[in-house]
Amino acid sequence: MCTIPAALQAKLDSGVTTLAHCWTLQRRDGVALGFTDHDRDLVVDGVTCRAGTGFAASEASARFDLSVDGAEISGALDDATLSEADLGAERFDAASIASWLVDWSEPSLCVLTARGRLGEVRREGAAFTAELRGLADLLSQESGRLYTARCSADLGDTRCRADLGNPAWRGNGSVAALRRTSIFVAAGLDGFADGLFSGGRLSWSSGANAGLAIEIKQHRAAEGEVRLSLWQAMAAPIAVGDTFTVTAGCDKRFATCRDRFGNADNFRGFPQIPGNDFVMSYPVPGTVGVGVGGAAPDGGGVGGVGGG
Question: Which domain holds residue 223?
Answer without folding.
Answer: 167-247
